[in-house]
Request: fold
Amino acid sequence: MGKFTKGQIEYFLLKLHSLTGLVPIGAFLILHLSLNALRTVGVLPYQLSIDALNNLPFLIWIEVSVIYIPLLFHSIMGFYVFTIAKSNVFKYSYPRNWMYTLQRVTGGVVFVFLVYHVGTTVAPKLWFGHHLFDAAPFLIDVMNDTFTTWTGRTIYLIGILSATFHFANGLWGFCISWGIVIGPQAQRNAGYAFMLFGLVLSVMGIATVVEFSLHPVSVQPTFGGTS
Amino acid sequence: MAKRTKRFIVIGGGLAGLAVTMKLCEAKAEVLLVSYQAVKRSHSVCAQGGINAAIDTKGEGDSPEIHFYDTVKGGDFLAHQPPVRDMCFQAPAIIHLMDRLGVPFNRTPEGHLEFRRFGGTLYSRTAFSGATTGQQLLYALDEQVRKHEHDGLVTKMEWHEYLGAVLDADGVCRGAVLHDLRTGAIFSEGGDAVVLATGGPSQVYGKTTGSTVCNGAAAMSAYLQGAKYANGEFIQIHPTAIPGQDKLRLMSESARGEGGRIWVPRQAGDPRDPLTIPEGERYYFLEENHPLFGNLVPRDVASREIHDVVYNQKLGVGGKSMVYLDLTHHTEEYLEDRLGGILDIYQKFTGDDPKKVPMKIFPAVHYSMGGIWTDYEDDGHGLIDHKSPRNQMTSIPGLYAAGEADYQYHGANRLGANSLLSCIYTGLMMGPGLINYSKNLTRHYEDIPTTVFSQARLNWEGRFQAIKKMKGKENPHQLHQELGEVLLAHVMIVRENSKLEKAIIQISDIETRFSDIQCLDTSDWANPEPSFVNQLHLMIHLAKIIAKGALVRNEFRGAHYKPEFDLKQPPKFDPHEFVDYLEQQQYGETDESAFPPDHQAYMKRFEENNKRWLKTTIAQIKNNQPEISYESVNTSLVTPRPRKYD
Amino acid sequence: MMEALIQLKIKRQDSPDSKPYWEEFTLEHKPSANIISCLQDVARNPVNRSNQTVPPVVWESNCLEEVCGSCTMVINGRVRQACTALVDQLQQPIVLEPMSKFPLIRDLQVDRSRMFENLKKVQAWIHIDGTHEIGVGPTIPEKQRDKSYVLSECMTCGCCLEACPQFTLTNNFMGAATFSQVRLFNMHPTGAMEKEERLEAVMGEGGIAHCGNAQVCVEVCPKNIPLTESIAEIGRQTFLQLLKNLFLK
Reply:
């Protein structure tokens, strides 16, 4: 130990950046979008899913280690990657170069969106005091409020679409940089597959937004407010 | 006492330069490798066809001995035979070495080296790597030299120019004067020996198949310092090249092999679209003049015919120096399948699709058989003593030459796919001799007074200052173009003494105008103009050597075609008759009736001509003019005999 | 359309630390003219559009048949070789700029030493016992030879790097050309003996992990080298090497 060169450390961190995008962040994104999509089935399943998550034991530790630290790491490395390169998409306007540029742009957009999203949904927990706080009614109210305005809807649509693009396109890049798909034809096919995958995730997200906007329904704490 | 490290200066990073560098590094010597640009960009990359070695993988009965015979015969017996024979015997080992270095040579189904047939032989002897054999060979050597550079034995001085040798009071080469093409600095470097692996001189003809760095300047600088230049008049012409504004690019012979027809409109200057010209108004001159071989006559014959049609009959397409090479009678599918790659090259550089319109082609200057005179030491058994420091040494002690820059291996005409071989061979072969030269030195460059080096540097600094002060009317690039035009018009495929005399006068005019040149840029930083002016001056000297050599040599040999002195071989003559004839002479049994009278007369003419002209042309500078003399050729192994083209 | 005249607009710079400026030239149109012949014409008559005599444009060239890589420059916004840039296929005025990702020397000439230094870093060569005669080379299937050949046509021209958004003048990214050479040498039976050393090199500073998959390299490569395939292949090799380093050493 301690013999690693700067280059080796950098390689390792960049690989970790790539990996954290897939697990846990990507995995969490799938989970998050699919659970939210329960809202389109009905408000109750949605509420129950929030309860289930919020009643996980050691929740805070899980959140910090599986979401916040990886996300923060991925973001910091993302900004590093962003700063050492310089997009030339207007000079060399090939589709893949557009995807490359959008990957960086959406990364930034998602970061800003997440600051807003976490700030409005999770952060309040901190000043409510955990024992007094029942997540589901609070979160559903926040969402109902957000989706009454076009501003809120737009912010969420941009955030969700950026995240799904960033994830799907990132997966494609992951497959190449880890040498999972190699030949040009395989790379093209993988591109189409991940495009479809991204589309599915996007539809789930959009459907949830639409449902919230069309049918805002408030709920009571599942367990009568006593937790 | 610490062992002294040997140090060599190699000028040029093509195949020959890299091969000798690799060989010297292997002997733990230090090498300073000097090149105009990154060595990986050297002209060797342009060679397409392949490299010869008689490995006989196809059970055809080929052998290095036959390769040797083909080579000297192809060169019209003008090459010294022991070095050529040694090259041919080393060739198989060279191919195996290059293969081990990673050259992606084409393979047989079993995974062994594939060989194909090339001009001038009946055997499959040419190893190749796609259509870029030269590039692949060069890269393999470049990689080895990079490894030695990485290990600290090679110091590369890319973006540097060789100006001249540093000669001590005894006329021994002790180093080189170099010119940093970025900073403009001129400085001397010391070395045990200097190797000029500086390639061919085709730029003297202006537009050729050569690269822009092939200007022969280093060779001419050596010549001006007293080195002998040999066989300058022997310049190989390739019959089918694509005319371009900037250079002439080769069109592979396979286009004719696949049925390409060469023609011009019968009416001079016919402005019509070639496709609208009816069959009867087209002049398929090769087919008409050579009913048997048609468009597939040998290269030199094709070149001469095209030259005749364009210059004597004035039938060039649109009044210009080109003829049609027509493939449009084939379907596009057929052409794509058989010739796709090479037709793409034509389209890439002309914008025209040869599947739809006839290609326009013209012969182009391709290779110089001549070069700096170099020595060799044979081992008494028809091969070379590889340990001898004499191998590849020029007439200046300590100054060596290799590759296309030297003259030894191709005689009067080079066989296809032998050039890559001679470059790598000379580079590798001369290594041990150079090491021994260094070992045998009683005084090294470190022992030479520093004033010798500083004086050499000062001379060149003065020369460049003088060039920068040239403020005349002539544009050097324009003058270079005109010099090329003179040579192309008068010292090309067909040589006539009246025209050669005219060329010498015109070159002399250009030399006069040279003193009225304007140096177009006088700044110090990355300024190629003063160098170009200096190179032009050297090219003018080379033009004089070529033209004078051609004028004086009153015979037809190999690439040097003088119709006036054609010995007119009888049509049914068999070269073996000449061997019988010589045998009879040897045993004093001359039987006049044994041969048809015209054959007998021809053989006598041939014998007399060889007595007079089977000699190496030597040019040496005297009063600013080339002084031509002749040296005998070593023909100890194969008796020179008439060549027959069928 | 065939123009009677050629308009050239060239970005010039006298030295690395001086200011760039634009200079325009008008040239006579010649059949099958390319950018090289235009620059040669400028040298034969170095007079700009304002009728001032100026020093000829400095650029790099050698083979003029797209095998040496010298004359690479940015023509009408796209990096390519000047020799294959035919005037009749270009929109006028034709704009010439030096490559922007390499230190500028003068006018259209840049210093591409970085590419050659990278070849040293990854040991892009085959270790041999010596150049003496030791028999035939390894047997290689023609199919594999064919793959190597395509990679071996790389002329270190720098197009892939100039067009790569991850490759900049100041960072240390190695770029597609280098990775493709690593693949070439790792593929060779003898070259494979140093595979690990090469992989360690591209798992270091400026290595393969910096590739952002913009894939412009493969679009601009004049030799149609499958660079993105090489990148993925080296991605796989380095990943396996990483596993080996983590769990087997």
In short: The domain at 7-44+131-234+369-454 of chain B is CATH 3.50.50.60 (FAD/NAD(P)-binding domain). The longest strand of chain B covers residues 359-368.
